[in-house]
Structure formats: structure tokens, C-alpha cells
Design brief:
The structure is a homodimer of 150-residue chains. With 150 residues, chain A is mainly α. Chain A is built from 6 helices and 3 strands, in the order ααβααββαα. Chain B binds a DNA duplex (30 and 30 nucleotides) through helix 1, helix 2 and helix 4.
Amino acid sequence: MPQARKSVTAAQVADEFSRTAKVLVRHFNERLGEHGVSTPRSRLVVEVARSQPVRLTELALAVGIAQGTASTLVDALVRDGLLERQTSADDRRSVLLRVTAQGAALAQDWTAGYELAAEELFRPLTPEQLSTLVDILRTLSADEASPAGG
Amino acid sequence: MPQARKSVTAAQVADEFSRTAKVLVRHFNERLGEHGVSTPRSRLVVEVARSQPVRLTELALAVGIAQGTASTLVDALVRDGLLERQTSADDRRSVLLRVTAQGAALAQDWTAGYELAAEELFRPLTPEQLSTLVDILRTLSADEASPAGG
DNA sequence: CATCAATGCATCGACGCCTATGTAACCTCC
DNA sequence: GGAGGTTACATAGGCGTCGATGCATTGATG
């Protein structure tokens, strides 16, 4: 007999969610900071490493940020020598992204760091809770639109 | 015997979480935007209305943001005539916050908008999922530290 | 082939958020 | 009652994010 007790309002859940989201962000930034990178930057590099060559807009969609944001971040990562931009031959508007050798090496390190951080974070949950959580999250993000900018 | 299905990795859950968090933020910004306010601003005003008079640091803690962030946001809200600052007589370092008449009126409107937005967002969940979600969120945010700046 | 809409990316301005500091007020303790 | 640590707030600097917009390229249509 779960919810019969103390019915939470939707607003309270939203509050709790946003608070937890910040905890999560902070946790990842701390852990990845030990690897000398921020969460968004590492996510981009890791994603490019996983699915290169990848177009900018695809990448943005994959990591869940707006295209303009991805553009700016990628720009910095290219300047830092972790990613390479290359104009597509098929469609000269689009940009194909790849990791450099350095980027690939760091991506491996950061992937490990990211996974470890995630495990730490979710360790207090039972496997059952974890799978329930995923279900819920997918349900919540299913109906809603993606960021604009494309 | 739930989780026997398809074991998700912690990293995937983290990805899903961060994606959902963005969906949530976007949803609230859209809905509250119809009321002419952003989510963080409305949260501050609503919280002050609920527990005035309140000190700045308490407020920051209550809404889950860093003290410096609260300071800046409150500053804007004071300029806009929604909040009032008043130096505490007991401790002249601290600032007591109250809503103005205008702030109180808007807080009511925004509270309604916030609750409606939350209900929309969580409508696809069963009451049971909702209460499970809250449990999980509280578990996750329990061990972790609050933002610095205090 | 000329035109016009659609697409892919870059850039701009603004916001919220953080950490790290600075400054003023408070408190302790000798 | 003055020195030194602590606390409350403000400010500075930087990051990631968004939506909106501009520009080049592509594709579709007559």
C-alpha cells in the first residue's frame, strides 16, 4: 500500500526533481573535474568518439543540447585539439566531427570517470529502483519536445 | 522479479536523467513564460511569499541554489518591485526578505501556474510511480552536499 | 534555369548558475 | 575591550544553456 499515506503534490515532486538534478550535475562536475574536464565537454567528446563521424546537429540531439550550444562547445574543443571539423563532401553545409588521437585517449579516460561517477551516484538505489527510475524518466521525456535551434 | 529485463548501466540512467531534467526545465519555462516570468524568479518569489520574512541564505537553501545566485536574483526582483529587502535588527549582517503587494499577487498567480505545469508534466505517471519517484529522488539527493557559497 | 523554401551551422544577447572572494558585522576569549 | 575567527551578504569572472537570427547551401517547382 504505497501512496495511500502522504500524497505528494506534483509541484513537490518537481521541486525534488530539480534539486536532485542539481545534485547530479554537481557530482559529475566534481568527479570529472578530477579528470580535468567539465561534464558537457566530456559528454561531447565521448559521444563523438562513439559515433564518429557525426554531424553537429546529430551530436546535439544525441547529447540533448541545442544546436547552437553544441556549435560553441565544439568550437572550443576543436581549438583545444580534441575534435576535428570537416566539411562534408556530400553536403557542404554540414560539418562532420571526429576525435583527434588526443581526443580519443581522453574520451576513454572520461568514459571511465563518467561511469564511475554514475555508479557512485546511483549506488544507494536497488536494481529494482534503478530500472523503475529509467522507466519513469523515459515516460516523462517521451512526450516533450527537444530543444529548439535546429 | 522486475529488473531481470534489460540491465541498464548507471551511466545510461544518468544520461536519461539529465535529458529528462532539461525537458522539465523547458516545460516549466514555457508554462511560466505565459505568466511573464522565468522559473527561477517565480520560485524565489513564491518561496518568499510562503515563508516571509526570510533571510537570503535560508531562501537560497530552500530553493536549492547557491547563496551568490540568490543574491543576484533577489537584487533584480527588488529592482522590479516584487521583493523588499530589510536589514535585520537582530543581526545587521543579515537581510530579511518580504514580498511587496505586487509580489504577493504575482506569487499567487505563479504558484497556480507552477502547480498546473507540474501536474501536466507528471500526468503520465501513476500515483504509485509518483510516490516511488519521490522516494528515489530523496534517496539520491540525501547524501550529497548542498551548493557552496555560504 | 530562376526562384523560393528548407536545411545546417555560426553567432548574438541574455539568463541562471557556480565558485571564489571581498566587506561588514558578530562572537569569543583572553 | 581588542584580536582573530566566523557568519551573512554582495560582487566578480566564467561556463553552459537557450532562443533568435543570419548566412550559405541544397532541394523542389514552375
